[in-house]
Amino acid sequence: MSNEHGNLIKNPKQLIIMVFASFFVPLIIILLLMVFVNNGKRVDSSAASDQLIKPVGQLNFKDASAPRVLQTGEQVYKAVCASCHTSGAAGAPKFGDSAAWATRLGKGYDGLLTAVLKGKGAMPARGGASPTDISDYELGRAVVYLANSAGGKLAEPKAPEPTK
Questions:
Q1: For residue 78, with 0-12 CB atoms within 10 Å meaning exposed, 13-18 middle and 19 or more buried, which class applies?
Q2: I need a surface site. Which of 12, 86, 123, 135 has the fewest CB within 10 A?
Q3: pLDDT tens-place string over residues 48-90
Q4: Structural domain boundaries of the chain?
Q5: End-to-end CA distance of the chain, in Å?
Q6: What CATH number does domain 70-149 carry, 2.40.30.30, 3.30.70.790, 1.10.760.10, 1.10.10.60?
């Protein structure tokens, strides 16, 4: 018989090299593939989480020792009210819809503010806002902003006296 196709491994040293190569070469290839696949997908985790929760809420960190800055009616509307009043979710009257607001505007500012503070229908009390985040005065400004968008002629509420 001819010995043309003899063994590739002729001594123990070659056997050890082949065992290590057969283990480490695939491992290195897998690691390189992992780096290649993951290379283009790195995103800022805080930006990604903000985008994920944006339809539901917004993270807003404040310095508790900083002086309180009162928000305008438009700012409160965008932060608290817009999620329902823009789309008309759960029967909420839409922003700027005169027909939907006609009967509500007849209750006046005090009636509208009471409905916001206590809740009405599917709307939770204070529109779901915390009293520590948004004051009654700021909610009142949002009521005026929202009602006036639908043709109301409500006057801006009087600012509260600064506390010392």
A1: middle
A2: 12
A3: 776 776 666 666 677 778 777 788 888 888 888 888 888 887 7
A4: 9-38, 70-149
A5: 107
A6: 1.10.760.10
